[in-house]
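User:
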Amino acid sequence: MNPLRKIVLALAGLGAMALAACSTGPEQGNATEMTQAGMGIAGYKLGSGDEIKVTVFGEPDLSGAFVVDGQGAISMALIGQVEVVNLSLTEASRFLENKYKDGWLKDPKVTAELVKGRPYYILGEVNRPGEFPYSSGLTVMNAIASAGDFTYRADRQRILIKSADSPDEREVTLTPTTAVRPGDTIRIRERFF
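Assistant: Predicted structure:
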């Protein structure tokens, strides 16, 4: 092979490697935060009745599913009762890491995931108003379908949602992606015409 051709091929190969090194890979981030964002619960605060899965990496005996009790706490091996009410899943993970660091584990890595949230409620102009079990990825349209769809008097465009952690109802426009969070109360108003 011609020496000039070898040099050209080598330079082309180096150029291709340099370009490949400049490319960006998939977005990296905290697994708990990415899962929460996908479920539409990134700002969700834990409350009584929520079931969470706590994983302490490298410590399967400390990991498992835990239900937040009436006092807002979970009972964990070694560290006992830990209050997690009003914490996000990310905050709960960091809080548990700090508890385990305090004389129990060296550099623990803890994640908390929502397994089963509080039920949601749907009221007003639906065929079967009431309490329904929350499932991850739930949208307002799914919730309305679970409640037997709208009545003929329903205002199908403007929906009121009261979050469990807020005293106020907010009006939302119904879209296929409008998310429901555990503990939400959805109210379907009657139309005026």
